[in-house]
Write a structure and sequence with these properties.
Layout: H1 11-19, E1 25-27, H2 31-44, H3 50-61, E2 65-67, H4 75-85, H5 89-101, H6 110-119
Parallel strand pairs: 1-2
Length: 127
């Protein structure tokens, strides 16, 4: 979401965006709800305008972002994973996809990065 919020942009996010020109990213189904919620909350906080949200969503559709269509994990397994990684259930879902699919995780969230390392999940290096 750093791509949508000017004050949260970073070199890491920019490099991930560049890699999405050539590679696909796999996200949990919940991702679309998180994107929509983040945009709406930041519109209300006047961090972005409706026109910027529309442009961002148009650009986002052009990226190779694929939703994981697997059966979601059980509440029990997601809770356990969140405990082990010391993350929220929402972040545990991203970890679950990375673990199950044996994929690196791209995130700037410090707690999620720490949880990934604790579980042995490789962090995505966009270089």
């Amino acid at each position: 979401m750093a791509w949508a919020l000017p004050d949260e942009q970073s070199d890491y996010a920019d490099r991930v965006l560049l890699r999405l020109a050539d590679e696909a990213a796999l996200v949990p189904l919940m991702w679309q709800f998180e994107v929509a919620n983040t945009l709406l909350v930041n519109e209300r906080r006047n961090r972005i305008q409706v026109a910027e949200t529309s442009e961002f969503l148009l650009n986002l559709r052009q990226l190779a972002i694929v939703r994981d269509d697997a059966v979601p994990p059980t509440i029990e397994s997601l809770t356990e994973l969140g405990r082990r990684a010391q993350t929220s259930a929402y972040d545990a879902l991203y970890l679950e996809v990375a673990v199950r699919r044996r994929l690196p995780l791209a995130t700037m969230d410090k707690r999620l990065r720490a949880g990934a390392q604790q579980l042995g999940v490789t962090l995505f290096d966009p270089r």
